[in-house]
């Protein structure tokens, strides 16, 4: 670029329909690793990054939309921001991504974008993505003729392989230096739709070669019988993998922490510092870090399902049963996203067209078993469920228990939405369920591994500040005034006696009561708090895994089950409440959900405790 061009900062927009490869292209053009998946509704926020090779140029990635007539909340974000950006003098270029394997779906929106850019005097490039797929099937497309008929330059690229990006970089430089806007036209949308249909017939791939593989796979995955069986098998394997795949890494982290503790603690002085390092750092924070590998595995497996295109099929399979509970098939993805974290799940609910069903989805998402619950579940399941297997190792009892507790949370979410939808007086017309079936694609492992690693880092940093703060406070209260000689006589013990009557009906002593109360800041704090308290009690021993310490304590099976039930239902995340208030436009919903779900959690935990006790547990 010239010096004059470098002195003139510009913004560039990246816009397109869902599943056109827009976000993957954004990652390549900016060097970022924004979330990429093969399902409509994944990108629900506007992402930005510096355009590589073009100093001073910021590239914005808008959510996918099928047209400028927005229906869903996600599309409204894209359309409103696009219309606003066209009036911004800093906007130097609009890039509209189309899927050349499904031209008609993309061309209508692209023609609308070209028309609006012509009216605003903004240059526009049409990026024909997935050109490599056509070449693999020996299909050609006349991009020069398509450019002439569309009234804007069309460049063939592959966001997956990087094909055509060098040429794109050159054209971007030319457009920023010498912008050329398309001709100003006022063609109505109905005429543009007809034009898109005709262009797709003239230039689109002929025949059904691109659909044969998809149809064969859909015949199995969407089959009335086999499709349902495959769905439950895949979901079961998802939760089973949380234990089996992450076990070696968890053992390695645990052994590393134990070895580091034995090496570091004896080198410290005075004894106060030794006790803090052993009890607060290694027993408290370390107990939480042991379970991070499971977050990595959970994110990785869900990413495999998203990138492969199976998620859209799962949403279609779930549509009919979800309607019984007042939801829609589009609720499945926000709910499953809530398994990783409730916050992206709430954002993903923007893709739901119906405001009422979006509200019901908000009610269900906090009950999805998110990754913050995972350390708690793993700790309690490892303490009470044997690690034996059945059916030649295909079924592990701990994995089965994890599947059941996840299923319990999901069922609770569905029952809540069913009750609210049945007894609510608010009614609205039932919008048709329309969902695009993206092509099946092989997931790209490197971006998936990066995303999983980034998710682990985000999980640690997000919870880290809270965990460190709570751990230090718990250690100070438990260590003084008797310097750890008697935890029950410490300041923490005195506070614990005040909350103990609340948890005594669940068979929990004050230690577990304090851990539960502290976890209302963030669920995963429960593990760190217990680690600190058990660390203070066992200060004369080497670092012992928290699972073994719970097994050696007086916590019974009934109390363990009650804790699992309590954490499955209670709304114990300040960040989730804040995002929910923002998306719902009111604090009232989040506050009411907090108190209602907490009361439900205690009641269900009490029932579970009495039931297990009655059965001899």
UniProtKB/TrEMBL annotation:
SUPFAM superfamilies: P-loop containing nucleoside triphosphate hydrolases. The keyword Membrane applies. Residues 9-178 form the FeoB-type G domain. Coiled coil: none annotated. Pfam families: FeoB_C, FeoB_N, Gate. Keywords: Membrane, Transmembrane, Transmembrane helix. The chain crosses the membrane at residues 220-243, 255-273, 280-304, 324-347, 359-385, 397-420, 459-480, 561-581, 593-612. This is Ferrous iron transport protein B. The lineage of its organism: Bacteria, Pseudomonadati, Pseudomonadota, Gammaproteobacteria, Cellvibrionales.
